[in-house]
Predict the structure.
Amino acid sequence: MRSERIFVRVRDAIGASSRSTFRVLHFSVQADHLHLIVEADRPLALASGIRGLAIRCARAINRAASTSGPVWRHRYHSHVLSTPSEVRRAIAYVLLNFRKHLRASPGIDPRSSGSAFDGWAGTCRPAFYGPVARPRTWLGAIGWRRAGGAIALDEAPSKTADLNRR
């Protein structure tokens, strides 16, 4: 999914998925899966938003790869982020995850929403806001910054909490 041809279509599908009640805030496209941080106004809006996003992404991938049929092997994993520390760790994990999967050097993953993120430490500034929505919750907009401040490009995602473990 990280090839240019597929990524561009997945990125566009992610951008088309945000609604007033469901918003994609951050994403990272890996070789065979996505990492997302989303806000939803209600549980039903989350389920509906994820379903729509999965369908859009599957159609985009199938078109780009000239294939058809199922794209996703598993259901999505959902974890409610409820503290500033959890949100900060999740943002670092999602935006810096390519370093873990690809053993890449510090920097902004070109297959993520990192270039639109305004919370990088130092002089790194967003190049565009892109296909992601601005957070509307206190945790997503302000709270995470109170749990350690801006995120450094050289933070190691392996040192952040793996969101699949509980």
